[in-house]
């Protein structure tokens, strides 16, 4: 829109990047924010409406001009592969491969700092190494739509007491500490032998476009940042939210409250809303820690100090 | 780009509209210019590079939301139909039809003010009624690419002397004058019987992306406005222009000079150029009447006063 870009999120984890949604103009917003393109490893698409998708051919072309040659992974709901293949007819000769994952049912685990940058489907959360895990949830919109959780796990602290009690030779402490199993003098040693208690990582949740659901409150549980659509600011527009399968600010705030998240960031405002801040009170009265998103909004999430 | 929209031209003829090229963000530029969408009858695409095309799915979706139900015509080079069909996989349920014309070899004539708004392929220029004619030329780029001429013809002036000498009954003068043949008292009367000499209309030429060609100088002959790519401002970038199949400002100005056009409007500047005005002298020293295009540039072309 003339005065606001379409909703999109770029996550930066130690220089590697994940993008969620890519409406027309997203690459321009990225240029303004000077995010760079080359380190973009994953694109998550919530659903196949144009305002979440039509920037993809342009972004992928620009990525091709950035010197990227590693494969990129695109995750989306059922049907996304056909749509992306259609959009890509006009983009010839990309210097990298595109892997498409439709409607993932398990967790997707990714060690973004490893060279392969390949996502593995895993069955449960893996807290043993510092990595990123992606989880998807089916939402309730006018066509197949996914919400996403992003977990950044934190490696447990090194415990010399545990290493000693497990009789681990000092020589391999450091290697085990980085999460690698070690065979030393014909005996296998596992990382848990030198690591202490689990530590809290970071959880970020991204929910758009949908009606509120009980499964969402469960999905976003204890998120550090819950990014949620707030298409309608005014409570009187509830009938529009119901008809068009969106949410009001109040409904998003109710989800934030039920999910006991740390912070709610509202985005995806109706073009009819010029000043979303005017409706902030409708969310705040239900969930105090609310931010109204704006172009170029930037936030750092860090591990808790100990 | 953050500081400049992609090159695109919207023509407005008595409220009906023709768009040439539609890169990412063109619909945003149209919103800023408050052009409206509903009256857009024709889109001409020069070629299938993203910066001329990737705004199409978004624009056509927006057009669908504008209440348009009349068919729209898209004209482009060989191969454009497959690419447009790909882009449109993500756009479902448009309330209007899309007619695609690939690489037209003849003139396309359109009476934009008639209800049908259908393009007819014709073999020669038709000066008898006030209408618009589109002519395409194959250019020399890295993939199939078309340049376009747009003619707005001007109906010849009514000549009472001619009507009298042709013995045309006064009762049908007005009807013949509007370009319609009339059967009156079992005799056919044609418009030429009441019309005087041809009058100069308007010719607009749009050439991007290409190397200069002799056929271009011929094609743009006597244009009132010659819109031309000037990808490189600096004459020292000629090797880049040759390699990437583009033109320098100087080369565009040489075409303008050879074609004896009234005015040259440069557009399609390389992202490496921040201030195209800095290179204006390179065009002006060859062709004086040069304009450097900018976001929102607007110009009216009118029939000559008599």
TrEMBL record, chains A, B:
<keyword id="KW-0255">Endonuclease</keyword>
<feature type="binding site">
    <location>
        <position position="209"/>
    </location>
    <ligand>
        <name>Zn(2+) 1</name>
    </ligand>
</feature>
<feature type="binding site">
    <location>
        <position position="209"/>
    </location>
    <ligand>
        <name>Zn(2+) 2</name>
    </ligand>
</feature>
<keyword id="KW-0479">Metal-binding</keyword>
<protein>
    <recommendedName>
        <fullName>Ribonuclease Z</fullName>
        <ecNumber>3.1.26.11</ecNumber>
    </recommendedName>
</protein>
<dbReference type="GO" id="GO:0042781">
    <property type="term" value="F:3'-tRNA processing endoribonuclease activity"/>
</dbReference>
<keyword id="KW-0540">Nuclease</keyword>
<feature type="binding site">
    <location>
        <position position="47"/>
    </location>
    <ligand>
        <name>Zn(2+) 1</name>
    </ligand>
</feature>
<feature type="binding site">
    <location>
        <position position="52"/>
    </location>
    <ligand>
        <name>Zn(2+) 2</name>
    </ligand>
</feature>
<comment type="function">
    <text>Zinc phosphodiesterase, which displays some tRNA 3'-processing endonuclease activity. Probably involved in tRNA maturation, by removing a 3'-trailer from precursor tRNA.</text>
</comment>
<dbReference type="InterPro" id="IPR013471">
    <property type="entry name" value="RNase_Z/BN"/>
</dbReference>
<dbReference type="InterPro" id="IPR036866">
    <property type="entry name" value="RibonucZ/Hydroxyglut_hydro"/>
</dbReference>
<feature type="binding site">
    <location>
        <position position="49"/>
    </location>
    <ligand>
        <name>Zn(2+) 1</name>
    </ligand>
</feature>
<comment type="subunit">
    <text>Homodimer.</text>
</comment>
<keyword id="KW-0819">tRNA processing</keyword>
<feature type="binding site">
    <location>
        <position position="141"/>
    </location>
    <ligand>
        <name>Zn(2+) 1</name>
    </ligand>
</feature>
<feature type="binding site">
    <location>
        <position position="51"/>
    </location>
    <ligand>
        <name>Zn(2+) 2</name>
    </ligand>
</feature>
<comment type="similarity">
    <text>Belongs to the RNase Z family.</text>
</comment>
<keyword id="KW-0378">Hydrolase</keyword>
<dbReference type="Pfam" id="PF23023">
    <property type="entry name" value="Anti-Pycsar_Apyc1"/>
</dbReference>
<dbReference type="GO" id="GO:0008270">
    <property type="term" value="F:zinc ion binding"/>
</dbReference>
<keyword id="KW-0862">Zinc</keyword>
<feature type="binding site">
    <location>
        <position position="268"/>
    </location>
    <ligand>
        <name>Zn(2+) 2</name>
    </ligand>
</feature>
<feature type="active site" description="Proton acceptor">
    <location>
        <position position="51"/>
    </location>
</feature>
């Amino acid at each position: 829109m003339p005065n606001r870009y379409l909703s999109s999120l770029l996550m930066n984890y130690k220089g590697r990047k994940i993008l969620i949604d890519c409406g027309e103009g997203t690459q321009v917003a990225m240029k303004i924010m000077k995010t760079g393109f080359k380190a973009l490893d994953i694109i998550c698409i919530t659903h196949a409406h144009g305002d979440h998708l039509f920037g993809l051919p342009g972004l992928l072309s620009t990525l091709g001009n950035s010197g990227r040659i590693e494969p990129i992974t695109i995750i989306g709901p059922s049907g996304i592969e056909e749509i992306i293949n259609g959009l890509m007819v006009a983009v010839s000769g990309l210097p990298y491969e595109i892997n498409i994952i439709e409607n993932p049912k398990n967790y997707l685990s990714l060690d973004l700092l490893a060279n392969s940058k390949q996502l593995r489907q895993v069955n449960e959360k893996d807290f043993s190494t510092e990595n990123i895990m992606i989880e998807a949830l089916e939402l309730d919109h006018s066509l197949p739509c996914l919400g996403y959780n992003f977990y950044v796990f934190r490696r447990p602290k090194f415990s010399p007491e545990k290493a000693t009690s497990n009789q681990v030779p000092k020589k391999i402490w450091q290697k085990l500490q980085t999460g690698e199993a070690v065979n030393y003098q014909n005996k296998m040693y596992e990382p848990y032998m030198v690591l202490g208690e689990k530590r809290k990582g970071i959880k970020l949740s991204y929910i758009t476009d949908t009606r509120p659901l009980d499964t969402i409150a469960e999905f976003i549980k204890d998120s550090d940042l819950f990014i949620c659509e707030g298409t309608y600011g005014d409570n009187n527009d509830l009938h529009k939210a119901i008809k068009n399968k969106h949410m009001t600010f109040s409904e998003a705030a109710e989800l934030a409250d039920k999910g006991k998240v740390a912070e709610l960031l509202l985005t995806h405002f109706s073009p009819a809303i010029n000043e979303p801040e005017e409706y902030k009170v409708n969310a705040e009265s239900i969930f105090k820690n609310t931010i109204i998103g704006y172009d170029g909004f930037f936030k750092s999430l860090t591990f808790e100090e100990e």
